[in-house]
Design brief:
mainly alpha, single chain, 69 residues
Length: 69
């Protein structure tokens, strides 16, 4: 039971990260900013972090959590 709750919490965290990244990306698309390259770097950093987390889930034998998002 505790394992299932932990897994669901981790899935929710990943889903939240994806929603945050997409929301941020949509906001940057609608407004022209002079620091567009800096914003893209932040998005790339977040994507890299998400890939790293997915890799960790796979290494822990939790491939379904790596796919969730």
């Amino acid at each position: 039971m505790a394992v299932r709750m932990q897994q669901e919490a981790e899935r929710s965290r990943l889903r939240g990260s994806v929603v945050e990244i997409l929301s941020w990306h949509q906001r940057t698309q609608t407004s022209a900013t002079p620091n567009a390259n800096a914003d893209l770097e932040k998005l790339a950093t977040r994507a890299k972090q998400a890939r790293h987390e997915a890799k960790e889930y796979r290494s822990w034998g939790m491939p379904e959590q790596a796919k969730t998002g």
